[in-house]
């Protein structure tokens, strides 16, 4: 799998129901983790697939079974299909230009039903909110 495909898959699985800025924010957080190698893993694949990093890649997460059906033109017209197109565009942007970070350095995020950062994250600072996602970096 090419890095762009894996990044897009992660964005799509993590933020399909979010707006475009939140999708891009997830992409920024992936890139920010990659920049902090080896803390979060090495390379795009290592960062994305490292256990417990992105919940949609954990076996027990229902999104881990989701795969895009991009070969089906009818699927591309569904909400999931449109979210995939947006996610792929975000992934391309993340790879092409690392100068834009709308998360202000965030490497972590959560969405409802969580209402505060998990204790396992340690001391973190809220950087921004994009749609329903709250973004954080180490304090």
**Distance from first to last alpha carbon:** 34 Å
Q: How can the largest sheet be summarized?
A: 3 strands, antiparallel
Order of helices and strands: HHHHEEE
Q: State the total count of DSSP E strands.
A: 3
Low-confidence stretches: none
Number of domains: 1
CATH architecture: Orthogonal Bundle
Output the CATH class name: Mainly Alpha
Strand-residue proportion: 5-15%
What assembly state would you assign to the polypeptide chains in this entry? single chain
Q: Going across the major beta sheet, what is the strand order?
A: 1-3-2
Structural class: alpha+beta
The CATH topology corresponds to Arc Repressor Mutant, subunit A
| Total of helices | 4
The geometry reads as globular
Rg computed from alpha carbons, rounded to a whole number of angstroms: 14 Å
What average pLDDT do the residues reach? Answer: 95
Q: What fraction, in percent, of the residue positions are helical?
A: 25-40%
What does this structure look like?
- With 139 residues, the protein is an alpha+beta fold.
- The protein has helices at residues 3-15, 20-35, 43-49, 79-96, and strands at 108-110, 124-130, 133-138.
- The chain has one domain (3-102): Arc Repressor Mutant, subunit A.
- The protein is 39% helix and 12% strand.
- It has a three-stranded antiparallel sheet with strand order 1-3-2.
- Strand 2 and strand 3 form a beta hairpin.
- Helix 1 (3-15) packs across helix 2, helix 2 (20-35) crosses helix 3 (43-49) and helix 2 (20-35) crosses helix 4 (79-96).
């Amino acid at each position: 799998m090419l890095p762009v495909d894996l990044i897009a898959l992660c964005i799509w699985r993590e933020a399909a129901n979010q707006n475009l800025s939140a999708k891009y924010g997830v992409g920024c957080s992936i890139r920010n983790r990659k920049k902090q190698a080896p803390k979060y893993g090495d390379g795009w694949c290592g960062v994305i697939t490292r256990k417990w990093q992105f919940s949609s890649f954990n076996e027990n997460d229902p999104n881990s079974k989701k795969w895009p059906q991009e070969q089906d033109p009818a699927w591309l017209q569904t909400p999931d299909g449109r979210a995939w197109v947006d996610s792929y565009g975000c992934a391309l942007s993340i790879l092409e230009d690392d100068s834009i970070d709308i998360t202000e350095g965030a490497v972590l995020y959560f969405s409802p039903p969580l209402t505060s950062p998990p204790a396992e994250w340690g001391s973190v600072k809220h950087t921004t909110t994009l749609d329903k996602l709250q973004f954080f970096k180490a304090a």
